[in-house]
Amino acid sequence: KDSIDLAVIGGDGIGPEVVAEGLKVLEAVSAAKVNRTEYDLGARRWHETGETLPDSVLEELRGHDAILLGAIGDPSVPSGVLERQLLLRIRFELDHYVNLRPAKLYPGVITPLAVDRVAPEGIDLVVVREGTEGPYTGNGGALRVGTPAELATEVSVNTRFGAERVVRDAFARAQARERKHLTLLHKHNVLSYAGHLWRRTVEEVGQEFPEVETAYAHIDAATIYLVQEPSRFDVIVTDNLFGDIVTDLAAAVTGGIGLAASGNINPDRTAPSMFEPVHGSAPDIAGQGKADPTATILSVAMLLDHLGRGDEARRIEAAVAGDLSDRRNAVRSTSQIGDAIAARLS
Ligand code: IPM
Ligand code: MN
Fold it and tell me: What is the pLDDT, as a whole number, of residue 51?
C-alpha cells in the first residue's frame, strides 16, 4: 500500500505541539502519501460537549492504518476522566495488549546515572508492558466513603490469556534481538496469585523459545538495577502498572521523558495501533514552544516500523541520534528541534 491513513489526536497541553513536529518529520521521511484525519478529543471537547470518546469516533479510528497521539489529561478535568474514558478506552477497545517502550541511551545524551559522563556500559532495553489488564481495568470499589471506616479496593486483573499473549510477544522480541534475554518483573513474594501466573506463563511459553535466556526480578529490586546496573536488561516483560512505573524510570535514566517513545500495539492487527510519547500533557509549559518533540518523533519511527516501513524508521532514528549527539545544552524551541531533525532527513 502506498499511502498511510493516519488518525491524529493532538490531545491536551503540549500534545498538539509535539504532534505537529512528529508529522513534520513523518512528511519529510515518508515515501508514502500520508492522509491524516485530525480528531479533536481531550479537555476542550469534554468542557464544551461533555464527550470524551464518542462511539462513532472510536469506530472511525478503527478504519485507519495507525493513530498518532500527543497527550491526554488536564488539571481542569477531574482526575481519571480523560485518562480512563479516552486514553485507556482506546487501548482496551483496540486491544493494544503490547505497550512497547524502548529505552536507549543515545550517544551524547546526559543521564542522571553519572554526573558528568554518560553511563559506562550503555543502556539499550525495551519494556513490553501489558496494556489491557492489571489494575487498569477499573475493577474495584469503595465503601463508607468519607467515614473513618472507609475502604477502597483496586483489583488487578490477570488472565492466563492476557499474560500469555504478551509474554509470547516479549519472547519473540527478545529472540529477534542480539542478546536474546528476557526479564520478567513482578512481585511474586507478595502478589502470589498473579505472580505465580506470570512466572508459570514465562516458564511455559519459554519452551517455544529455547534460545532466549530468561531472568526474574522483583519490581522493587528492578528499580535499583535500572539505576545501578541497567545493562543487565535487554527485554523486560511486566504487567500494566509495574510497566507504567518502570518505563518512567527507564526514560529518566536514558535522558528523560522528553525522549521516551511508545507504541500501543495490537500485534494481531485486528485494529490500528497507536503511537504516543510516554510523557504527559505538561500543562505548565503548554503553548510555550518549550516541549521536546523528540519522544513523539521517535514514536513516529515506531509507527513506521509497525507499518513495515523499517527503512524509514531507521532513517528517523539516525536523524534523531545525530541531533542528540550535537544538542548538548542548546536551548531550542519545539519547532526548532522538529525542523533540525526533519532537515537531517533530506
Ligand atoms: C502512560 C500514562 C497513562 C498510564 C495514564 C495517563 C493513564 O501514565 O501512558 O504511561 O498510566 O498508562
Ligand atoms: Mn505513565
Answer: 97
Pocket of ligand 1 (CB under 6 A): 73, 83, 87-88, 244, 278
Amino acid at residue number 55: D
Active-site hit among 39, 65, 104, 187? 187
Question: Catalytic site residue 74?
Answer: no
Burial class (CB in 10 A: 0-12, 13-18, 19+), 331: exposed
**Domain 111-127+134-254 maps to which CATH number in 3.30.450.40, 3.40.718.10, 3.30.70.890, 3.40.5.10?**
3.40.718.10
Which residues fall in the annotated binding site? Answer: 91, 101, 129, 220, 244, 248, 280-292
What confidence score (pLDDT) does residue 119 get? 54
- The pTM is what? 0.96
- 239, 244, 305, 323: which one is catalytic? 244
Spatial separation of the C-alpha atoms in residues 337 and 272, rounded to whole Å: 28
Domain covering 1-101+260-346: architecture? 3-Layer(aba) Sandwich (3.40)
Are the beta carbons of 42 and 301 closer than 8 angstroms? Answer: no
ipTM of the complex: 0.99
Stretches in the chain below the pLDDT threshold 70: 114-121
